[in-house]
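Give me the fold.
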Amino acid sequence: MHIGDAIRWTRERLGLTLEAVAMEAGFGAGSLSRMVRGQQAVTVDRLTEVARAMQVRVSDLFLLIESPSNEAQHQLRDSETHRYDEEMQSLRRAYSGLDIQHRRIAL
């Protein structure tokens, strides 16, 4: 597994769209897609933003790529700090669809 696989696996597990994660991270979906597919370098700054957007730790992503088996996938620590129930996922999707003015109003 490489870092792009870890990002994809985590994003899908949390029920987040690529577009929502990219927007929350502050760059385009195409750029994130290229990083996930290994076609664009993943800088530490970008990886930090992606992890923040998914509300996981960068170390959680590295745990996935460093583990010799799938056991790390079961150890992803989102359950310790963040619960992603259906209502929260729905709110994130709705928020990600807002323009900047409406986001400010929502906040």
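The chain has nine helices and no strands.
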